[in-house]
Amino acid sequence: MAAHGSDFLCYLRTITAFTLAHTITLKLALLNIIHLSSKAVEATIALSIIKMAAAYAIGITATVWFFGKSDRVV
User: Could you please report the per-residue DSSP string of 15-26?
Assistant: First the structure.
């Protein structure tokens, strides 16, 4: 099923948020500003993907978690 209009923008925001968060975390770790266990990082990434998949499955978009807006995937 192809994403259209606002669905596409929602997917784009979700992917962008994940990418930015992972980029910032990686940069901070490479600069030795933060120290993270690889197991903890991998588990957190997996849980965040599962959480987003579950949200989309029940019709709640990423905007609810990231921006506090309530909208539904139609």
Answer: HHHHHHHHHHHH
Q: Which residue has the tokens 């600069």?
A: 31
Contacts of 10 (CB under 8 A, 6+ apart): 3, 61, 62, 63, 71, 73
Tokens 């989309």 belong to 56
Q: What is the pLDDT of residues 26-50, one digit of tens each?
A: 898 889 998 888 888 888 888 888 8
- Which residue matches tokens 């209009």? 5
Domain boundaries, given as residue ranges, for the chain: 6-67
Residues 6+ apart with CB under 8 A from 34: 25, 28
